[in-house]
Design goal:
Elements (H helix, E strand, L loop, with lengths): L13 E8 L4 E2 L4 E7 L5 E8 L11 E2 L6 E8 H7 L12 E8 L5 E9 L2 E4 L4
Parallel strand pairs: 1-8
Antiparallel strand pairs: 1-2, 1-5, 3-4, 3-6, 6-7, 8-9
Enzyme class: hydrolase
Function: Catalyzes the hydrolysis of 5-hydroxyisourate (HIU) to 2-oxo-4-hydroxy-4-carboxy-5-ureidoimidazoline (OHCU).
Keywords: Hydrolase, Purine metabolism
């Protein structure tokens, strides 16, 4: 496939994530993650739910193969519940409760990795590899 071509679901790609708790300097274990596909008309379709393992990762890709389709998506991370469970003193309600990350999958043949670096008052993300 040349540089400008787009794979429309050849079954090779996958979507993964990883959460790092930058306040504690460790993986964000036990965080609930929801993945929705976003339609052009504002509709959302739930396509996956998972919890991070002890390494802050999901045990399997959130989407892979034929299920990984080009389109717009939103990952939502339940970080308020995570920090509460860790015994972190939070405001009520927490400053960051759920962190949504909207992104697009253009080439279903690629690996899309969306990491989250989190603290109770800040977060960062990027397209990883």
């Amino acid at each position: 496939m040349s540089a400008g071509q787009i794979s429309a679901g050849r079954g090779e790609g996958r979507l993964t994530t990883h959460v790092l708790d930058t306040m504690a300097g460790r993986p964000g274990a036990g965080i609930t993650i929801v993945l929705d596909r976003l339609g052009d008309n504002g509709a959302r379709t739930r396509v996956a739910e998972a919890r991070t393992n002890a390494d802050g990762r999901c045990d399997a890709p959130l989407l892979a193969g034929a299920d990984l389709l080009p389109g717009r998506y939103e990952l939502t991370f339940a970080v308020g519940a995570y920090f509460h469970a860790c015994g972190v003193a939070l405001t009520d309600p927490p400053f960051l409760d759920e962190v949504p990350i909207r992104f697009a999958i253009v080439d279903a043949g690629q690996h899309y990795h969306v990491p989250l670096l989190i603290s109770p008052y800040a977060y960062s993300t990027y397209r990883g590899s």
